[in-house]
Write a structure and sequence with these properties.
Length: 44
């Protein structure tokens, strides 16, 4: 059973929600990856 019934919203609402969600998750992930790379390959 789906959590949300996206057939009941306007066409652009799902797209907007999805884009905001991807960005909100992506920024912290990018920070974590950047920190892991810095620790693994320190600049001499």
């Amino acid at each position: 059973m789906p959590i949300h019934d996206w057939t009941r919203v306007q066409a652009g609402d799902f797209h907007h929600f999805h884009q905001c969600w991807v960005v909100a998750i992506g920024i912290p992930v990018d920070i974590v990856i950047a920190n892991l790379v810095r620790r693994s390959f320190p600049i001499a």
